[in-house]
Amino acid sequence: MSTSNQAPVTPHCFLEVVIDTPLNSSFDYRWPCQPGDEPLPGQLALVSFARREVMALIVAVKSTSDVPPEKLKDALAVRGELAPLSGRWLALARFAAEYYQRPLGEVALPGLPKNLRVPKTVALGRALKKLAKLDAGQDSTAVGMPVLNTAQQEAADAIGGATGFKPFLLWGVTGSGKTEVYLQACAQVLARDPQAQILIMVPEINLTPQLEGNIRARFPGMMLATLHSSLSEGERMLHWLAAHLGQARIVLGTRLSLLASLPHLQLIVIDEEHDPSYKQQEGLRYSARDLAVWRAHQLGIPIVLGSATPSLESWHHARSGRYTRLDLRERAVQDAVLPRVRLIDMERDRGRDGLTAEMVAALRLRLERGEQSLLFLNRRGYAPVISCDACGWISDCTRCTAFMVLHKPENRLRCHHCSLELRIPRSCPTCGNVDIQPLGRGTQRVEEGLRAMFPEARILRIDADSTRLKGSAQAAFDSVHRGEVDILIGTQMVAKGHDFKKLTLVGILNPDTALFSQDYRASERLFAQLMQVAGRAGRAGAPSEVLVQTRYVQHPLYGAVMRHDYERFAGQLLDERREAGLPPYMYQALLRAEARELPIAIAFLETARDCLAHDGILINDPIPMTMTRVHNMDRAQLLVESSSRPALQAFLREWMEALRAMKARVKWSLEVDPLDI
Ligand SMILES: Nc1ncnc2c1ncn2[C@@H]1O[C@H](COP(=O)(O)OP(=O)(O)OP(=O)(O)O)[C@@H](O)[C@H]1O
Ligand SMILES: [Zn+2]
C-alpha cells in the first residue's frame, strides 16, 4: 500500500470503480504505482467516498481521467492479495444491473461477502491461510451410486454429455429421482475435467442440508461450498473464496449463490425451478433462475432446470424448442406410485377444529399403522383475525391494509406486514364486550385442535414462527426424517423438495382462497403448490393418499391435481395467457411508488406515465396496490408492457433516466418481470 498523495511526481494510474450506492455512475480515483504494476479490473480497492471508507470494485484501469486533477482523490488501498474477479463475472453483474435497471455497484458489491468489503484485511488473510492448508485432493471412492432407471440414465447422459450452451428442462414427477440425475450428470462433468466447477441451486435454505448430505456421500474428498443467508460472515467468506479460487468443485446455494465467482463453471443445476423464491422480492428484484440461464449462455455451458411443475415460462420454452425437455414420468423407488388424491366436500362435512370427519379418520388410520401424516395449511399464527360479535370490531392493523394475526403462544396480535405487535385486548376496544373471538385458523390453532383430538400422537408444527431460532428448522426436519413425528403440520416450508420416507397421508386444508385471487399467476402457483405438497406422500413405496378439504369440488384446478395432470393444465394456462396477452407472451415491468397519501403516489405515477414518448409500449393507468397501505405508506403501481423484450428494455433505460432526473419526493422502484401484480 502506498500512502503518497502529493501526486504529480509519483507515477500513477486511474482506477474507475463502482460503489454500492444508488448513484448510477462509476467514479475515478488515482492510484500511485509503477508502470506495469497497475491493479487489474475485477480487483477491490478501498476508497474514501462521502467521507467514509468504502470498498469499491475496479471496473477499468486507465492512464487518463476526465475528472479535473484537483477533484481526484487517491484510492486508499488495493486488495492485491485477492485474485481479480473475472471479466465474465463482471459482465454477468453488468448484465444483471442493466436488465434490472440498477447501478452496477448496487449489484456487484452486495454479491460479495461482507468481510471482503470491510476496511480491514484480517478476515481475508485468515480465510486465505485456512484454504491454503486445505488439501483438495484426498482421493476416495464414491459410495452407493444407485442404478438409474432408463429415463434417469438417459437424462443424466444427455446433461453430462452436453457441450456448449444447452438448456434442459428436467420434468420429473415428484419422487422421480431428479436429484440422482443431477448427481450422476455432475459426476460425468467432474470426471471429465479435473478443474470443472458446478453450481447447484435450491430455492430454500431448508433444502440444502439433505442435498448437501447426498453430495458429500457421493463425492467424498471433493470440496463442496455452500452459500446461503444463514452462514456466519466468516463461513461465507471462506466458502465464497473456495469457489473464487476454484478449490470448491461444487457450490450449493440459494438464489444469492447465483453471483458466486466460479472461474471454471461447467454446469448449472436449478432444482425446483418453478419456485417463486428464486425471485428476490426487494432491492434488486432479480430472478436467479433467469440470470442463471444467461450465465450459462455467456459461458457456453449446459444448464438444467428441474421440476415436477415447471414454471409456465420454462414450459413455454420447452414447447417452442428453446429448452430440451427430459421427462421422468414414473417414481424412482420400486413400487412407489403417485398418491391417490381425493377431495372432501366441506359443504357437506363442515368438520370440527377445521378438520373434517374424513380427515380425522384418515389421520387416525395412519396413527394406528405407525405411518406419518402431513397437514398443509399456508397460514401461520393462531387465527388470521379476531373480532367482536357485538359491534363488528375487527383487529385491523393501524398501519396497514391488513389484519393483525393472533399468535397464541406469545399472546400477541401481530401484523405480518409491518411487524407491529400488540397485547390481545381483554375486551372489545370499541364496545367493551369481553367476548372477542378468533376468526378462521392458522397452523397454531390446527395444532391445538390436533393435540386435543390425538393426545397420544407426536405432533410437530413447522412454520416461520416455530423455526425462528438458528438451526431449529434443521432439527425439526431431522426429527421428521428419524420418524419421531406422527403428524406434521406446516406452511409452504414443508411443501417442497423434502424426501419424507415414512409419509403416507397428506391433508390439504383450506386452499380455496387462492382460487379467486386477482393475480393471474395465482392458479399456476396454487396448482404447483398442491402438486408439490401432494408429492411428499408415498415416496418410499407404501400406498398413499392426499385429501383436499374444499368448498369447490368441481373446480377444474382440483380436477387436474387429482389426475396429476400438469401437462394439460399447463397447456390450458398457456393458451389463456396467450389470449389475454400475458407473460410469457408479453414482457412486463412494474413501477411502484409509495407516499404518505395515496394521491401523491398516484400523481407521481401519472407524471411517469406521461413523461416520455413510448411507441410499441403499453403503459397502463396507475392503480393502488391490492394491499394499499403498509407501515403507514400508501402504495400504487403502474404496469408497463410490450410484446418485444428489447423494445421494453430500451424504453426502460430511457425512462429510468428521466425518472431519476425528476428527483421526486416519493419513494419509487422498478421491477422487471414482476411476479406479483
Ligand atoms: N434409480 C433409483 N433407484 C431407487 N431409488 C431411487 C433411484 N433414484 C432415486 N431414488 C430415490 O427416490 C426418492 C425420490 O428421489 P428425489 O428426492 O430425487 O425425487 P425428486 O424427483 O427430486 O422429487 P421432488 O420433485 O418431489 O423433489 C429418493 O428417496 C431417492 O433416493
Ligand atoms: Zn401492519
From TrEMBL:
Transmembrane segments: none annotated. Its EC number is 5.6.2.4. Zn(2+) 1 binds at residues 388, 391, 428, 431. Binds 2 zinc ions per subunit. Keywords: ATP-binding, DNA replication, DNA-binding, Helicase, Hydrolase, Isomerase, Metal-binding, Nucleotide-binding, Primosome, Zinc. PROSITE patterns: HELICASE_ATP_BIND_1. Zn(2+) 2 binds at residues 397, 400, 415, 418. Pfam families: DEAD (PF00270), Helicase_C (PF00271), PriA_3primeBD (PF17764), PriA_C (PF18074), Zn_ribbon_PriA (PF18319). Belongs to the helicase family. PriA subfamily. NCBIfam families: priA (TIGR00595), PRK05580.1-4 (NF004067). Component of the replication restart primosome. Initiates the restart of stalled replication forks, which reloads the replicative helicase on sites other than the origin of replication. Recognizes and binds to abandoned replication forks and remodels them to uncover a helicase loading site. Promotes assembly of the primosome at these replication forks. PANTHER family: PRIMOSOMAL PROTEIN N. This is Replication restart protein PriA. The lineage of its organism: Bacteria, Pseudomonadati, Pseudomonadota, Betaproteobacteria, Burkholderiales. The gene is priA.
